[in-house]
Amino acid sequence: MNGISLGKYLPLDSCFHRLDPRAKIGALLMVMIAIFLPAGFLGYFIIGASVLVATYLSKLRLNFLWKAMKPMLFMLIFLLIVNLLVIKEGTLLFQIGSFGIYSGSLVQTLYIVIRLTLMVIITTILTATTKPLDLTLGIEDLLKPLKKCKVPAEEIAMMISLALRFIPTLMEETQRIMKAQMSRGIDLEEGKLKEKIMSILSLIVPLFVSAFQRAADLADAMEARGYVPSQPRTRYKQLRMQKKDYLFLIICLGIIIANIILWRLS
Amino acid sequence: MSITFKKVSHIYQKDTPFAYKALDKIDIHLQQGRMTAIIGATGSGKSTFIQHLNALLLPSEGSINICDREIRSDEKPKNLKELRKQVGLVFQFPEYQLFEETILKDVCFGPKNFKVTQEEAETTAKQMLQIVGLNESYYAISPLDISGGQKRRVAIAGILAMNPDILVLDEPTAGLDPQGAKDMMKLFKELNTVHKKTVLLVTHDMDHVLEYCDDVVVIKDGHIEKHCDVSSFFQDCEALREMGICPPAVIQLKEQLQQKGFAIEKQALSLQDIVKAIVKEVKQ
Q1: Which of A50, A175, A193, B270 is the most exposed place for a label (fewest CB within 10 A)?
Q2: What's the complex ipTM?
Q3: How far does B154 lie from chain A, in Å, by closest CA?
Q4: Which of B67-81, B121-135, B148-162 is predicted with the least confidence, judged by mean pLDDT?
């Protein structure tokens, strides 16, 4: 459970860690748009280079990003196979039996691989350099304009932060129950399918029971401390955009513009 | 069936920046048939230690001998199920591991995992429920609908139903009312004396240690600080306080009486002994 780096916060001290979470979320959205513009390989080169610089500035190690990528590998391989079978564009490269492998399919797959890789890396940078609580504060502030059309911004942010808060707790709980049931003789590796299903059931039921129990307790505790969902709440931590945050956003805007130009020119 | 640890270390998250050494070259020999208390401050490595007993955690260094099996750090052990049947481990707050529709089914879950037939499992389950003090009227109730103390009894019955030779309990009385805790300790003592099981239990209650246990193991910062029998353990109050252990109420009473000038022997460890000593002195 400790090998997961997707979504994990790393308490380092870098200029990326000190940026305003709203600026970082905004930048993430902009770079995502840039990634999905069909600007060709030169466009991806610009984004890729900026992402590398961002990785360096945020003091993250490439090893950490690689670990975040790992769960995606299976999906990438699956996509490659599907693309090879389906896309019949470009020049025929070679033939295996009745199947032809076309250059178009390889190019398409490469595009998807690059897109997914970049997406995973930028989200990893965001979550690794921003504390989960700061992240939800940022989301809350960004959703505020939507309150006019009755979007419950604060409640959504509260829900996100509670969910994030309970991920490690539930992981711990799962481990604990797993160990307890292993002591009672369940075997998650060996055994017949029926036994395995039974084993999983013996984990899921107690986990659900305790999760609901926790949720009920938490709701009571929040009510006891006077939490009323729709009421305006003050906040101890105020977010302030600074010059460096605007500068950061302008750089990201630059990336989008560069990609739009490349797209239009091609 | 004795347990021997040879230079056992356990390192969590080995080879990462978060590496943490929870056990440090532990050497210990635990005899068969004894009731041993494991005490120590939170974070001292007690839980890590007991999870090695049924190989839920494997040693990073050293080797462990349990029930004629050797578990070494340099090879991956196979067929741990057999060991887990022989060493029953009851976690802290075991009531959270209940999941079946009825209490009887839940107690049967353990034995059935060890390829015991349905009828046999049910017979043992009924016996064990009897031992923990739950009668027939409980068999068909959902284990989620009873009180916390009863849930714990069901969970313990679930481990007992596997008929382990060694019973390991992590703070079995935590969060129970005094009477419930007392009943529970009596139950473990009975399992130890009548059913001849080796019992190891983690506890913070020195009164329980003095009253029910034979041996004491003190764990501090991942090593064994002390391992001796209960009577010699509680004779030296100064040493206890040095280890940060508050002596049991009876021992405190003895200490105060001694300060007031009563000549009570070192070996006096129960209220009766103390009363006898006082009576003797007053008569003189």
Answers
A1: A193
A2: 0.86
A3: 13
A4: B67-81
